[in-house]
C-alpha cells in the first residue's frame, strides 16, 4: 500500500458530498458538493486546499455525471482519481443492519446486503449504493470501503435495542432500534475522552449530536449502550423537520380520524414536523432571533426542543449511572450557546452546569464549557464524520493490504 489519500463520498438521493484527505497528516486536499442531481439547476462547488473555490452550474442528470464532474475538478488540481496516491474510497452508508458492525471492504455480497436493507432505509441506502457502484466503475481496481452509520450502535444491549413488541413479528420484519449518526458519536465520544486527557475505556459520555437531524447517545467506556434514533432516524429528539418521539397511536389516529395515508403521515413526521412544523423555521439561528424578538411560536418550539433534550440527558444519566462528560456537537450543538445553556439549566443536582463566559466563546476546536470545579464536564466537541470515515477506511485497507486484498 503506497497511497496515503482517501476520498470520502457521502451520496444522497440528489447530492454528493466529497472530501479528499491525506492520511499522513490528516490534511484536507479538497472538499466539494454536487447538488440537485437529476433536477434543474444542478450545481457543483469545489474547494481545493491550495486555491480558490470554484462553482459550476449545468446539467448533472445522475450520480455518474456527478462523480465525473467531481473527478474533473480533482484532475484540474492535480489530485485526480487516477493518482497512485489514492489508497481507497470510503463511503458513508446509512444502514448496515446487524450484520455490519465494522467498516467493510465492498464486494458483491456486501452490495447485496446493503440492498437487502433498503426496506429499513428506503431514502438512504439506494443513494449510498448508487454512489458505491458509480465509484467502482470509475476506479474498479481501488478498494471501496463502506462505513456504516449504524455500526457504532451495534454494541447496544438487547434491553436498549429491542422495542417491547411481539418478538416474532419484530424479528420477521427486522424491527429493532439500530441508531444512526454512529460515525459522529464514535468520533465525538473518543475526542471527548482525549479532551479530558483520559482513555476512552475509562470515560462515560453522553453525546448530543444536534444538527438538522439530531440524536443522543450514551457511551460507556467507548461503547455505545443506548441511542435515541431507532428503526429509522425518526425516533428521539426534536429535529429540524422530524418529530422525534411521539405516541405511535398518533399515526393510527391520523389515519382513522384524519383520513391520511401512511405516505402522507411519513412525510408529515419526517419533513413537516420538529422545529419547522412547530414554528415554520428549522434553522436554530433564525429561531433564536425570533425568540429574542418575543415571537411566541418560536419560543414554544425552542422550549419543546429543550424539554426533549433534557429528558434524554436525564435518561442517559440513569442508563450510565456515572457520567464524566456531556458533549455537544454538530451545527446546533457546536454553535448555539443558548441551546447548550438551556439544555443543562437546572441540572446542577446532577453535577451539570455551564460557565456563561466559556459557553459564549466561539471557537473551532474541542473545548470545555463547564466551570472548573464541575463534577461532570460539559464540552463542545466539533464532529468530523469525513475524517472518521477516512481514518476507518485507511486503517482497514492498510490491514487488508497485508492479505493481498487489492
Ligand atoms: P446536518 O444534519 O444537515 O448535517 P448540521 O450539523 O450541519 O446539519 O447542522 C445544521 C443546523 O445547524 C442548521 O439547520 C442550524 O439550525 C444549525 N446552525 C448552524 N450554524 C448555527 C449557528 N451559528 N447558530 C445556531 N445554529 C446553527
Question: What key attributes describe this structure?
Answer:
about 400 residues; alpha/beta; Nucleotidyltransferase, domain 5; 2 domains; eight-stranded mixed beta sheet; six-stranded mixed beta sheet; 15 helices; about 40% helix; binds adenosine-5'-diphosphate
CATH homology group of the largest domain: ATPase, nucleotide binding domain
Shape: globular
CATH first level of the largest domain: which class?
Alpha Beta
Taken as a percent bin, the fraction of beta residues is: 15-25%
In CATH, the architecture of the largest domain is 2-Layer Sandwich
Rg for CA atoms:
21 Å
Helicity level: 25-40%
What pattern of helices and strands is seen along the backbone?
EEEEEHEEHHEHHHEEEHHHHHEHHHEEH
Q: Got a strand count?
A: 14
Query: Strand order across the biggest sheet?
Result: 5-4-3-2-1-6-8-7
Count of distinct structural domains: 2
Number of helices in the DSSP assignment = 15
* Secondary-structure class: alpha/beta
Amino acid at each position: 500500500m503506497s497511497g496515503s489519500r482517501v476520498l470520502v463520498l457521502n451520496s444522497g438521493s440528489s447530492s454528493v458530498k466529497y472530501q479528499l484527505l491525506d492520511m499522513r497528516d490528516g490534511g484536507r486536499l479538497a472538499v466539494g458538493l454536487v447538488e440537485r442531481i437529476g433536477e434543474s439547476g444542478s450545481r457543483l462547488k469545489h474547494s481545493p486546499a491550495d486555491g480558490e473555490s470554484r462553482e459550476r452550474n449545468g446539467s448533472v442528470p445522475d450520480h455518474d455525471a456527478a462523480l465525473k464532474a467531481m473527478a474533473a475538478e480533482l484532475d484540474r488540481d492535480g489530485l485526480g482519481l487516477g493518482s497512485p496516491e489514492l489508497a481507497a474510497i470510503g463511503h458513508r452508508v446509512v444502514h448496515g443492519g446487524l450484520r455490519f458492525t465494522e467498516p467493510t471492504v465492498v464486494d458483491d455480497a456486501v452490495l447485496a446486503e446493503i440492498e437487502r436493507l433498503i426496506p429499513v432505509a428506503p431514502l438512504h441506502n439506494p443513494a449510498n449504493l448508487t454512489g458505491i457502484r458509480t465509484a467502482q466503475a470509475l476506479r474498479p481496481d481501488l478498494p471501496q470501503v463502506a462505513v456504516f452509520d449504524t455500526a457504532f450502535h451495534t454494541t447496544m444491549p438487547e434491553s436498549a435495542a429491542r422495542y417491547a413488541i411481539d418478538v416474532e413479528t419484530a424479528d420477521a420484519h427486522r424491527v429493532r432500534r439500530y441508531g444512526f449518526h454512529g460515525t459522529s458519536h464514535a468520533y465525538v465520544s473518543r475526542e471527548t475522552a482525549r479532551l479530558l486527557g483520559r482513555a476512552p475505556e475509562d470515560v462515560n459520555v453522553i453525546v448530543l449530536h444536534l444538527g438538522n437531524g439530531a440524536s443522543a447517545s450514551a457511551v460507556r467506556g467507548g461503547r455505545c449502550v443506548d441511542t435515541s434514533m431507532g428503526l429509522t432516524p425518526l425516533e428521539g429528539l426534536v429535529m429540524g423537520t422530524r418529530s422525534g418521539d411521539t405516541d405511535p397511536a398518533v399515526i393510527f389516529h391520523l389515519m382513522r380520524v384524519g383520513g391520511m395515508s401512511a405516505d402522507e403521515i411519513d412525510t408529515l413526521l419526517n419533513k413537516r414536523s420538529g422545529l419547522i412544523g412547530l414554528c415554520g423555521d428549522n434553522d436554530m439561528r433564525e429561531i433564536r432571533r425570533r425568540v429574542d424578538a418575543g415571537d411566541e411560536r418560536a419560543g414554544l418550539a425552542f422550549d419543546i426542543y429543550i424539554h426533549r433534550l433534557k429528558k434524554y440527558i436525564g435518561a442517559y444519566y440513569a442508563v450510565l449511572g456515572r457520567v464524566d462528560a456531556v458533549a455537544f456537537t454538530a451545527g446546533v450543538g457546536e454553535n448555539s450557546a443558548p441551546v447548550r445553556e438551556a439544555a443543562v439549566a437546572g441540572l446542577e443536582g446532577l453535577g451539570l452546569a455551564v460557565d456563561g463566559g466559556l459557553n459564549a466563546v466561539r471557537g473551532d476546536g474541542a473545548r470545555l464549557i463547564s466551570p472548573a470545579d464541575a463534577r461532570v464536564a460539559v464540552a463542545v466537541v466539533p464532529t468530523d464524520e469525513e475524517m472518521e470515515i477516512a481514518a476507518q477506511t485507511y486503517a482497514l485497507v492498510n490491514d487488508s493490504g497485508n492479505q493481498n486484498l487489492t
